Amino acid sequence: MGYVIATANMKGGVGKTTLTVNMATCLTKNYGKRVLVLDLDSQISATLSLMSPVDFAKLRKQRRTLRYLIDDIINPSSRAKLTIRDIIQAQVCNLPGLDLLPGDIDLYDEFVVSEMLHQQAVNLGENEFETIWNRFERVLLGKILEPIREEYDFIILDCAPGYNLLTRSALATSNFYILPAKPEPLSVVGIQLLERRIAKLKESHEHEAKIDIQMLGIVFTMSNANFLSGRYYKQVMQRVSQDFGEAKICQTQIPTDVNVAKAVDSFMPVVLNNSGTAGSKAFFQLTQELLQKLEYVEREKQQRTNLEFATS
Ligand SMILES: Nc1ncnc2c1ncn2[C@@H]1O[C@H](COP(=O)(O)OP(=O)(O)OP(=O)(O)O)[C@@H](O)[C@H]1O
Ligand SMILES: [Mg+2]
User: What CATH code is assigned to 3-311?
Assistant: First the structure.
């Protein structure tokens, strides 16, 4: 079975999208994995990192974006004609195995969602509006992904900054999350805030379902050290390491590299566009490290199962 992995941090501009699209590409290009990227941010950065604005505009006109699938769940009487398979863009960047579920600048209307859930609560005679809301956010992305979940080795969910409905739904449906962060205090606060929110998310759902998500790793991005910044960055990273444990910090850091940012102009990630640069090499190495972390988690899980089996 494949993995669903969310890339998240409450803080904006820390490299979530860049990490998502480069990791997805490395997994396909170097490891032959089947990967789907989901753009959950109305800034559509992941979409525009993998396809041109002209191609995106065409898809949007044909309603072939995530918005259509969310609409279909919010308003089931709309009798959707398109399925997730019609909307997924296969082989983006001409890379077989790399697929994209394009995002949209308008993903959903909070007011319409609240109204629909309120109506549901009234119809069901449920006075626990919170229970209905929790259930909705827990199943939303899971339902959308269900028909194709088994077809991919990795589904990577690019979350928006902050903590909106889609981020909560992404965390509720993922096996793991990766936290990119700049080695700066505010970015670190973003990690702490997200950690607290995830603990609360697990708690508020526990009487209905178990949310099983685990942190895969914290990745420091845009962290070039020179003689002025080096010591300071190191101190911040040490603090994070003390807070979350050394094992959670990825050894590979992503340096600031203008080629990484420039790659967006060519509508493909830097690891495809300019694979010899410092940024690309870091993404290749990071992908290898994350795969090793996954292997380690799986081995541990297997050992626990064996132990439970032996002692039962
Ligand atoms: N390693 C890097 N070197 C140079 N520029 C980078 C690097 N990583 C990201 N950037 C640039 O920094 C900006 C923010 O990156 P990105 O969009 O990936 O962050 P984000 O966390 O997804 O942002 P948001 O919270 O707005 O979704 C982008 O312009 C991106 O091109
Ligand atoms: Mg982003």
Answer: 3.40.50.300
